[in-house]
Amino acid sequence: MAPGGIAGKRLGTSFRRLISWGGTIALAATVLAGAGFTWASPRAWGVIGPLPQQAPAGTIPPGTKLGFLFAVLLVSWGAFFAYSFFMSRRQQELRKEIEALRRHLEARERQAQQTQSERRPTSGA
Amino acid sequence: MATLEAAKETRGAAVLGMGMVRTALLGVTAVMVAVTLYLGLLWAPPDAIMGDVQRIFYFHVPIAWVGFLAFGIVFVASIAYLVKGTDGWDHLAYSAAEIGVLFATLILVTGSIWGKPVWGVWWQWTPQLTTSLILWFIYLAYLLLRIYGPAGGQGARYAAVLGIIGFIDVPIVYFSSILWREWLHPGKVVGPAGGSVEPSMMVVLMVSLVTSTVLFSYLLLERYTLRKATATVERMWQLHG
Hints:
The complex is a heterodimer of chains A (125) and B (241). Chain A has one domain. Chain A is rod-shaped. Chain A is mostly helical and 125 residues long. Chain A has two helices and no strands. Chain B is mainly α and 241 residues long. Chain B has a single domain (2-240), classed as Four Helix Bundle (Hemerythrin (Met), subunit A) (Up-down Bundle), CATH 1.20.120. Chain B contains seven helices and no strands. In chain B, helix 2 packs antiparallel against helix 3, helix 2 (57-84) crosses helix 5 and helix 4 (127-148) packs antiparallel against helix 5. Chain B is globular. The mean pLDDT of chain B is 85. Classes of the chains: A mainly alpha (125), B mainly alpha (241).
């Protein structure tokens, strides 16, 4: 492969990695913004006084008990990110394993070449 | 030699193509999540009876849908594995089961969080909740069987049988509120026994369902690729180690 090709491939890999990370960060930021909005909402914990309309008896007035909604978002996205983190850890472990396998195969190949070169003068004599 | 080089190039192009699909899927997921959060938290009107707590509906129902979809994939992939015996189907079944258990856990947790302000209790032994818990146990057993069960093809076959039998519970969960005439859990919103939902709320629900499906597709693609790569590396260690 031409040097430019290798450089281009590296650049492509870096770019894809950047997009992948950027996408993950954008996703995390969006979720945190949504959750933060709910959390910061003055009505979230029912701290603002009387609501404009009195809801019928036995119902939950709008703008109250939003903490439960926040809890659902937190749990759902927390689980999603925890799972993504678990997968990324597994990917890292796999990468290390592939590297170890590559080194192992190279060492075996070197050993085979060495054995072959040691045998050659003997067979020639 | 030329054939080998051509094969390498084709494989490289396929891997590159898969990477692009993954990146595109992640981008689409991010945008759709942002839209769904906006629609679900701000755009949709509050419910007349449950107030803003009802917005949990836009997260809980799609999570349940994805859970059922994941177990449906386990079911289909398990049948395909038993029929064809190719490892790819087994990897797909395992990956879908793992994601399915994650979402089934979320169904139980988010449902419980929704139940507290609406019913006044975290949990009730109603048919839908009980059958959902059974479903969670079945697929948890599936994962435990994969981890601690026999290795290789035998373990995969046992798990495939469990994956097929376990799926019987999915329609039972879905129709339980009709089968047992349940009064506590909200009735069906979409489907054969669909109830009446305000149109704008239905729009948000549909968008949430599409978003969760795209998110699930992304997770499944990532997990499947990882599982397949892990299996390949293990096989190479066995061959050359």
